[in-house]
C-alpha cells in the first residue's frame, strides 16, 4: 500500500530535486539571464501528482460483464470517449490524472506543466521505503529528475509555464542548446547494439537528455539531503555515492532477445537499458570519482556531453 509516510518522503525527494534544478539553471554559463528567468518561472509553477488522485474519477454507468472481455474493452473505450466529449468547451481540468494509480510509469505533461508518479511505480526497484536515501535518490530520484528535465528538453522547452506552445528562449540560447544536444546524439549514434545495428541518437534524444539531466540533479539533491547529517555508513562495501549509482543501474537491469532489441532500436524513443545506464554515467565526473575510474577506461568519456 502507498502510505502517507511514503508520500511525505516522495515530496521531500521532489523538493530537493526541484531545488537542485533551480541551482543548476542559475549556474548555466551558456544560458542568458533572460532565458534563465523564463526557465525559473516555469520551474516554479511545476505541479506534482503523487500516488493517486485526491478525487478519484467515478465509473458509474460503465457496464462490466465477466463473460465478455472484448465487450468490456469496447464499452470502456466508448465510456471514456463520451466522458471526454462532455469536457468540450470547458476549462481544462489540470487536476485530472492521465494514469491509473496502478500504472508503472511516470510522466511530464507540457500542457499542464506537471509531473506524475502513480503508486504503481513507487515500489521496488524504483522506490523502497525501507531503503536508504542513496538507493532511492539514485532510483526514483533519477526518474523524478528525468521527468522534471522533460520540461526543458528538445520538446518540453518549446512550451511555456502555462502550457502554451511558445518559444521562450532567445535564438542564441536555443542554438547553444542544440549544439550541446548534438553531442548527445553523436554519443548514442556510436553505440553498437548488435553487429551493424546502432542506437538512433536523434530518436532517443529527448529521453537521453532526461536521463543525463535527471541523474545530475538527482545526485546534487542526494548530496543536499545529507547536509547537516552524519555521513551514512558503507553498506556491503559500497559508499553512499556508489549506492546512488547502483540504485539507477538496478532499475534498468533487463534481458531482451535480439529480435526485441531490433524493434526497440527502430521504434522506441528510449535507449536500450544498458545505454540508459552506461550512457549518462560515463559523462558524469561524480561517477568517476565515486568508483575511482581512470582516464581511458570504458566509463570515462574523453569528450563528455553536458547540457544542464
Main β-sheet, spatial strand arrangement: 1-3-2
Main sheet overview: 3 strands, mixed
Average per-residue pLDDT, rounded, comes to 95
Rg, rounded, reads 21 Å
Structural class: mainly alpha
Unreliable stretches covering 5 or more consecutive residues: none
What portion of the residues fall into strands of 2 or more residues?
5-15%
Helical percent range?
A: 40-55%
Q: Quickly give the CATH architecture of the largest domain.
A: 3-Layer(aba) Sandwich
Shape: globular
The helix/strand order is: HHEHEEHHHEEHHHHH
Q: Give the name of the CATH superfamily of the largest domain.
A: Collagenase (Catalytic Domain)
Distance between the termini: 35 Å
- State the name of the first-level CATH class of the largest domain: Alpha Beta
| Helix run count | 11
What is the total tally of β strands?
Answer: 5
CATH topology tier name of the largest domain = Collagenase (Catalytic Domain)
How many structural domains does the protein architecture include?
2
Amino acid at each position: 500500500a502507498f502510505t502517507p509516510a511514503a508520500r511525505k518522503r516522495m515530496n521531500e525527494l521532489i523538493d530537493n530535486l526541484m531545488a537542485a534544478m533551480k541551482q543548476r539553471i542559475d549556474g548555466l554559463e551558456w544560458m542568458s539571464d533572460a532565458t534563465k528567468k523564463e526557465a525559473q518561472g516555469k520551474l516554479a509553477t511545476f505541479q506534482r501528482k503523487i500516488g493517486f488522485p485526491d478525487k478519484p474519477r467515478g465509473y458509474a454507468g460503465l457496464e462490466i460483464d465477466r463473460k465478455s472481455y472484448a465487450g468490456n474493452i469496447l464499452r470502456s473505450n466508448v465510456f471514456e470517449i463520451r466522458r471526454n466529449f462532455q469536457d468540450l468547451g470547458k476549462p481544462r481540468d489540470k487536476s485530472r490524472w492521465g494514469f491509473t494509480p496502478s500504472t508503472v510509469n511516470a510522466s511530464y505533461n507540457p500542457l499542464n506543466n506537471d509531473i506524475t508518479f502513480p503508486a504503481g511505480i513507487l515500489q521496488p526497484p524504483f522506490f523502497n521505503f525501507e531503503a536508504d536515501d542513496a538507493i532511492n535518490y539514485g532510483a526514483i530520484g533519477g526518474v523524478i529528475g528525468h521527468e522534471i528535465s522533460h520540461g526543458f528538453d528538445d520538446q518540453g522547452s518549446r512550451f511555456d509555464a502555462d502550457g502554451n506552445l511558445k518559444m521562450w528562449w532567445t535564438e542564441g540560447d536555443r542554438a547553444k542548446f542544440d549544439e550541446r544536444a548534438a553531442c548527445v546524439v553523436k554519443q548514442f549514434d556510436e553505440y553498437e547494439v548488435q553487429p551493424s545495428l546502432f542506437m538512433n541518437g536523434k530518436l532517443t534524444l529527448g529521453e537521453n537528455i532526461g536521463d543525463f539531466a535527471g541523474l545530475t540533479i538527482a545526485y546534487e539533491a542526494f548530496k543536499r539531503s545529507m547536509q547537516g547529517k552524519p555521513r551514512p555508513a558503507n553498506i556491503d562495501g559500497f559508499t553512499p555515492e556508489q549506492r546512488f549509482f547502483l540504485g539507477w543501474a538496478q532499475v534498468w537491469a533487463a534481458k531482451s532477445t535480439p529480435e526485441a532489441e531490433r524493434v526497440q532500436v527502430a521504434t522506441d524513443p528510449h535507449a536500450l537499458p544498458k545505454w540508459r545506464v552506461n550512457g549518462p554515467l560515463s559523462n558524469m565526473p561524480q561517477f568517476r570519482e565515486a568508483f575511482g575510474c581512470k582516464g581511458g577506461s570504458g566509463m570515462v568519456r574523453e569528450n563528455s556531453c553536458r547540457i544542464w
